[in-house]
Amino acid sequence: MTADLPVLPAESTIGVTHIPPLHVIDLTKRYGEERAIDRVTFSAGSGEVLGIIGPNGAGKTTLLEALVGLLPADSGEVRWHGEPLPSPQRRSVLFYLPDGVRPYRDESTSHVVSFFSAVYQRSKAQIADTIASVGLHPVLQKRVGALSKGYNRRLLLALALLAPHPILLMDEPFDGFDLRQTREVADLLRIQAARGRTFILAVHQLIDAERVCDRLLLLAGGRVRSVGTLAELRAQTSLPSGSLEDIFLALT
Amino acid sequence: MRSPELHGLPSAPLWPLLAKELREITSGRALWTMLLLLCPLVGYSFFQGVSIYTESSRAAIHSPVLASSLSPLDGILLPTLGSFYVAVTLLFPFVAIRALGQEKETGALRLLVQLPYRHSTLVSLKLAAVLVAWILASLPALSTLVCWRFLGGHLALAETANLLFGHLIYGLLIGALALFSASISESAATAAIIALAVTIGSWVLDFSVAGHPGLLSWVAKLSLTQTLRPFEQGLLSSGLVLGASSAVVCLVALSTVWLPPGVSARSKLRRSLPWILITAAVLGAATQLRLSIDVTEDRRNSFAAADQKLLATLQLPLLVSVHLAPEDPRYADLQRNVLAKLDRAMPNVSISLAGGRQGFSAEGDESYGEIEYVYDGRSDVSRSTSPREILPLIYSLAGVSPPAPMPGGEYPGYPLVASADAALFWFFGGLPLLVVLCWWWIRRPPAIDSSLANQGGPS
After folding, report:
1. pLDDT at B450 over 90
2. What's the rounded Cα separation, in Å, for the pair A31 and A37?
């Protein structure tokens, strides 16, 4: 993947970030009396893969959609390099790939890819590289409605990678992939992250999260239970050799 | 990158978005199904229209008086385009809703609103695609005009273009209504119900309360079907064009307000209110615009040219007080034959119903049926609904002599004895086949750029 990424700030280098590029403060979304997410606070650094894990109904999708501005948050703030990033402007920094979307089912896969490429003015080489990196070429002529779940997921992944945004949010990015494909996609995300792009992934499968994420945000009942690297979470739960599953069970 | 910059927002090209919208609306079944239904519907209406016109022409072909009453606008265009109007009312919402409804249903809207386009741009280009779909849907109707010319029929350019313009405005109105319905609905089915409730509700309004006095009469004027009527009468009305255009703009603006999923319903309602108020004000202003042009070749909406010229010079207010109930057929005659023409010809005409729009009690009222004309302090009363009696009365009140008739300019009429049997083959065979071929061509797998497809990568 050789797609040009946006120029990132000089002080934001991988692993050494003075002001985290993305800072989410007390983000809250209510449905009536119920708080789907409750004062969620976290940050994400450049080139980081942050995994949001949690049980069903924890608020992972709500958090991503409220963060990107697709759901109206009731309170909270999102900051980009220390400056407030109001909801209408978030699409300039964040690109969100929802789960369960099958876009433009009557159109061919190549048309959908071409559409996003043309919108973001990607070069032919970039498009070809993206198609190759997600293994989409066997189905380029197929209609989106006729794609298997796995290929539909690859298409969505290709669309996200064509977007030039510095931060990509993905809801269940490994859903629909088998083990080999999951590893390939995880490698692809790691390569992208190494170039400075930040990923925030809502992941249901803990083993996938453990494999690809630098840090993990454990969400349960709409609240952040813990944030940190696997080692930090192990220390926090006093499970020095515990797996993510053990930590998950201990914290939820 | 300290401050957020909208990636590519200033320079995001519009063409990919428009091309996507066009592909979306043409790749679905709705448009092509509508076209396939339109072919026989419009074709049979045309065939019937030609048959009846031919029957009328047989008697008129040797009689100039009878011939002068034969106009292709009434005989061919109105019945043929009338069937197109029915299809646009009932079927076109399904085509237009697809432009937005499917993206909502599949979740693609959540991707679309993240693209570097303003929401107003997204909705405007969707309306542009809907307009293209309407143009495609109008091809069977347009082909009837070609067939009519091919049969040797006459078409007056101005009145034909005006009628087509009216249908275009009506189509845009239906398209914008469908987009708005889709923007406030979670599913295409709900959007279709809302759109059809308005369009069919308009028919119900038109049929049930038109001609009734008072508030019901005003309510009937809100019917969408009223949009086409002046165009069908051969009038290009500035007020109507302004009103319909403002309604389209309002619906597009409301669709833009209701499109983004990340805004609360309360906020959307708050943002909708100014658009509704502005549109209501423009619609109010549009009702006061009296400028309209009679584009018919037979000048059916105008008095004779000499009368028109003389009436235009009468600058003082003419007050007309009508002692008739609005639902009285004589009032309709008077309105069509005299009042509407006077209103267009004279600079200052004021018309009032003596009984008010709440109704008129005819029983025991000897003045019922009288029409009083007041000009320059002088008044006269007549019960006639014919301009032959009323114009001399007005000239007398104004103290001017009736004008001498201008020579020439008589409408000759266009009788034509022709058979449209061959056209049936086109509308029931050739055109549907062409539609199916176009459908197949559009849905064929695309050619893939080899430079994109031949790359390696994981499978």
Report:
1. no
2. 10
